[in-house]
Amino acid sequence: MDGISNKRRMLAGAVVACGGHAFAAPLLAAPGVLLTRPIPSSGERLPVVGLGSWITFNVGDDPAARAHCTEVVRAFFAGGGRLIDSSPMYGSAQAVIGHALAQLKHPPSLFAADKVWIGSGARGPAQIEASRALWGVPRFDLLQVHNLLAWEAHLRTLQGMKAAGRLRYVGITTSEGRRHDELVRIMQTQPLDFIQVSYNVLDREVERRILPLARERKIAVIVNRPFRQGELTQALAGQALPGWAAEIGCSSWAQVLLKFIASHPDVTCAIPATSKPAHALDNMLAARGPLPDTALRRRIVADVERRT
Ligand SMILES: NC(=O)c1ccc[n+]([C@@H]2O[C@H](COP(=O)([O-])OP(=O)(O)OC[C@H]3O[C@@H](n4cnc5c(N)ncnc54)[C@H](OP(=O)(O)O)[C@@H]3O)[C@@H](O)[C@H]2O)c1
Known about the structure:
This protein has 308 residues and is an alpha/beta fold. It has one domain: NADP-dependent oxidoreductase domain (TIM Barrel, Alpha-Beta Barrel). It is 36% helix and 14% strand. The strands form three sheets. It has a seven-stranded parallel sheet. A two-stranded antiparallel ribbon has the order 1-2. Strand 6, helix 3 and strand 7 form a beta-alpha-beta unit. Helix 1 crosses helix 2 and helix 1 runs parallel beside helix 10. It is globular, with a radius of gyration of 19 Å. Bound molecules: NADP nicotinamide-adenine-dinucleotide phosphate (NAP). The site of NADP nicotinamide-adenine-dinucleotide phosphate has 29 residues, from helix 10.
C-alpha cells in the first residue's frame, strides 16, 4: 500500500465520507492492485468493474462478429474482470458469451451472472436451464429476476436452487429508476444477495433510498447503464480531460465515469457493455488506483453536468 497516505484523493479500506455520512468501505486500493468489494452476504470479493452484454453481444451467429466479441471478453479477463452479466432478453448475447468462454477455455475466475425473464413462474426453470446450456457453465453464480417480472414465483425458484446448491446468489434487477417503490418493498421483505439498478454521474436517484437500504440489508449492488447506454461517453468524447483526472489515475472519461460509481461505498460493481476490446481494457483500468473522495465526486458531477 506504498504511497497511499500522501495521495489526497485516495480512499483506502477505511472509513470514507460520502453524502455527508461516514461509511465503512472495505475496499482494497493500492497502485496496480485490482479494486474489489465484498458481496455482503458471503464476504467473497468482486472487482468493482464487470461487463454487460446488452446490444453489444447480440451479434447473431456470424463467425467474424463472434470472434470479435471473444476478443472483448479476452480483454476483459486480461484486465482482471470477473463478472459478466447477461439475460435471455438480450437476443444472441448468451450464446455469444458461451462461444467466447469456450474459445477462452472457460476462465476459472468467471463470475457468471444471468437473469430469468419470463411472465410465467412455471416456465422459469426451463428458461434458466436453456440459458445455462447457452453459456456452457455447470451453474450460474448469480441469477437475477429481470425487471421484477413475475418476481414472487421466480424468487421462490431461485431461493430453491440456492438451497439445493445449484446457485450461489439470488438477485433482482430494474433500470432507469423504474418501480423503485416496489423494489424497496422487495428489498425490505425478501432475502436477496444482489440488486441491480441504474446509477451514473447524471442519474443519481438510487443514492437517496436504494443504496442506503442495500447497505442496511447487506445486499450487493450491481450498477447498470454506467454510461447511460453510451450517451455520456459520446457526449464527452473529444473533450480534454480536466487536470484532476490525473489525480485519480484516469486517462479517459470512461474511467472517470466508472470511478465515480465505484467510489460510492455501497456499490459492489458497475457493468459497462462494450463492443471493443480496447474499451474493455480501458474500463478495467477504472478498477485500479485511487478513487475520488467526496469533494472530487461533487466536482465530477458539476463538470459532467456542464459538459453534457
Ligand atoms: N434491467 C436490467 O437488468 C438492465 C437494464 C439495462 C442494462 N443492464 C445491463 O447493464 C449493462 C450496461 O448497460 P448498457 O449496455 O445499457 O449501457 P452502458 O454500459 O452505460 O453503455 C454502453 C455503451 O458505452 C460505450 N462504451 C463502453 N465502454 C466505453 C469506453 N471505454 N469508451 C467509450 N465508450 C464506451 C459502448 O460503446 P462501444 O461498443 O463503442 O464501446 C456502448 O455503446 C447492459 O449491457 C446489461 O448487461 C441491465
